[in-house]
Amino acid sequence: MQVAYLFSGQGAERAGMGAEFYQHNLQFKQAFDQASQILELDLPQLCFTADSRLQTTEYAQPALVALNWALYQASQAQLPPANALLGLSLGEYGALLAGGQLTLNDGLMLVKARGHLMAQACQQQAGEMVVVLKASAAQIEAACVAGQQQGAVMVANYNSPQQVVLGGTTAGIAAAVAYLRAQGVKRILPLPVSGAFHTPLMQSAATAFTPYLAQCCFSAGELPVWSNTTCTPFTAATLATTLAQQMVQPTHFAACIKALVQQGVDTFVEFGPAPVLARLVKQTAPHAQVYQVADPESLTNTVIELEVAHGITR
């Protein structure tokens, strides 16, 4: 068995995330409280209540990375060691914390700045994102061409063979969606975001983020963390550049999953409040074993299922 840990990205957040772990797991509580202190943010208030700030980019990003980090800390003693780490977009920061490429202080400082700068960029340049399900590559390419006659539109996320996300201006997205519907593509879902992430519309945020990256010391880490941008493991020498590029270039989550499977990974464990990445993995690598850790019950179930499937004893 070879295992990859996955860390969910923005969009997985939801009210109440982490509350059960906080009440019943000391390691989670200590990690979450430590993150609260570093961020100077009351994470229990933000995450465990119906706090509307959790639906905004500025607050969702640090909250989700802190949650994923605490889930990882609370689970390690019970799970098999990972061979590789991978996050989707924002989730890469959770993976880099787990891999040791970033210290907790530096990682959370970066995420807090990233969320703030991306929120500012959304105010300066409005944008939209839509999930497109079960469209062919040719249809997606033609939709982008059609949309670009009216505004900006491009693929922002290559999530699985069945799912891509388009990002762009309101006019561009509308024209692309109209083209796809005319082609018979039925499942097109708007994302509740205020900007076109992973497109050039985020260039102002990427430019402003560069000085923050320059302040950090990146290390080689203890485990390989795969980049959505390059589809290869991050290196200490290029990490800052790649994280800046990630904000304006598409993510290639599906390609990373395929590469990990080719290297022998057959088991994936997702840390996050919802099984978003688990579904994408099953669409990309149907024979892989996929598990999730979101709360104490799902951790217990994952441990039991791994023991049954692989004869693990801990």
Keywords:
Malonyl-Coenzyme A Acyl Carrier Protein, domain 2; EC 2.3.1.39; globular; 314 residues; [acyl-carrier-protein] S-malonyltransferase activity; Acyl_Trfase/lysoPLipase; 5-stranded parallel beta sheet; 4-stranded antiparallel beta sheet; transferase; alpha/beta; 2 domains; Alpha-Beta Plaits; single chain; Malonyl_CoA-ACP_transAc; 13 helices; 9 strands
Query: How many domain modules?
Result: 2
CATH topology heading of the largest domain: Malonyl-Coenzyme A Acyl Carrier Protein, domain 2
CATH architecture of the largest domain: 3-Layer(aba) Sandwich
Q: Biggest sheet, in brief?
A: 5 strands, parallel
Based on secondary structure, the structural category is alpha/beta
Strand content bin: 5-15%
How many strand segments? 9
**Straight-line N-to-C gap:** 16 Å
What are the segments in which pLDDT stays under 50 over at least 5 consecutive residues? Answer: none
- The overall pLDDT average reads 96
In the sheet with the most strands, the strands line up as 7-2-1-8-9
Approximate helicity band: 40-55%
Secondary structure tally, helices: 13
The best one-word shape is: globular
- C-alpha Rg (nearest Å): 19 Å
Q: CATH homologous superfamily name of the largest domain?
A: Malonyl-Coenzyme A Acyl Carrier Protein, domain 2
Please give the CATH class of the largest domain.
Alpha Beta
